[in-house]
Amino acid sequence: MKRQQGFTLFEVLVALAIIAVALGALLRATGLAADNAEGMERRMQANWEAQNQIAMLQALRQFPEPGQQAGESKEDGVEWRWEREISPTPNPNFRKVVVRILAPGAGHYVLAEITGYLRQQAGGGG
């Protein structure tokens, strides 16, 4: 009697189960990578907004008094919440500015934080 070649039904089912598990893991990894990329893009945009906040103060040649400020801004259709912490430095002609960009919605999740310095303009006041 001639022995038949090929796979048994059991071997085929085991192979299909292994492939199904591998594909499931691959899909999960792809989903996590997409979520991570979206989060990185959001943090990058928040970083740009923090830089914009400091650049705006510099462009307006403002020399704000020490203290805390908060507000909202809209950039490229995205609404951002920001906080600015302005503090004196040992040199009275400079102010330290810490800008934090918060995640939209409730809570206090900081997406980006940048520190910059403002210089008092010659002949200018606060």
TrEMBL record:
Q: Where in the cell is it found?
A: Cell inner membrane
Choose any GO biological process term that the UniProt entry carries and state it. Answer: protein secretion by the type II secretion system
The record ties this protein, via InterPro entries, to: N_methyl_site, Pilin-like, T2SS_GspI_C, T2SS_protein-GspI
- Kindly list any coiled-coil regions of this protein: none
Q: Which residues form the Type II secretion system protein GspI C-terminal domain?
A: 40-118
Query: Which key words tag this protein in UniProt?
Result: Cell inner membrane, Cell membrane, Membrane, Methylation, Transmembrane, Transmembrane helix
Classify the protein's membrane topology as the record does: Single-pass membrane protein
Keyword Lyase in annotation: no
**Iron-sulfur listed as a keyword:** no
* Source taxon at top rank: Bacteria
Q: What is its main location?
A: membrane
Q: How is it modified after translation?
A: Cleaved by prepilin peptidase.
Give an example GO cellular component term for this record.
Answer: plasma membrane
Q: Which NCBIfam families match?
A: gspI, IV_pilin_GFxxxE
**What quaternary arrangement does the UniProt entry report?**
Type II secretion is composed of four main components: the outer membrane complex, the inner membrane complex, the cytoplasmic secretion ATPase and the periplasm-spanning pseudopilus.
Please state which protein family the record places this protein in.
Belongs to the GSP I family.
**PANTHER family linked:** TYPE II SECRETION SYSTEM PROTEIN I-RELATED
Its biological purpose is as follows: Component of the type II secretion system required for the energy-dependent secretion of extracellular factors such as proteases and toxins from the periplasm.
Q: What is this protein called?
A: Type II secretion system protein I
Supply the source organism for this entry.
Answer: Chromobacterium violaceum
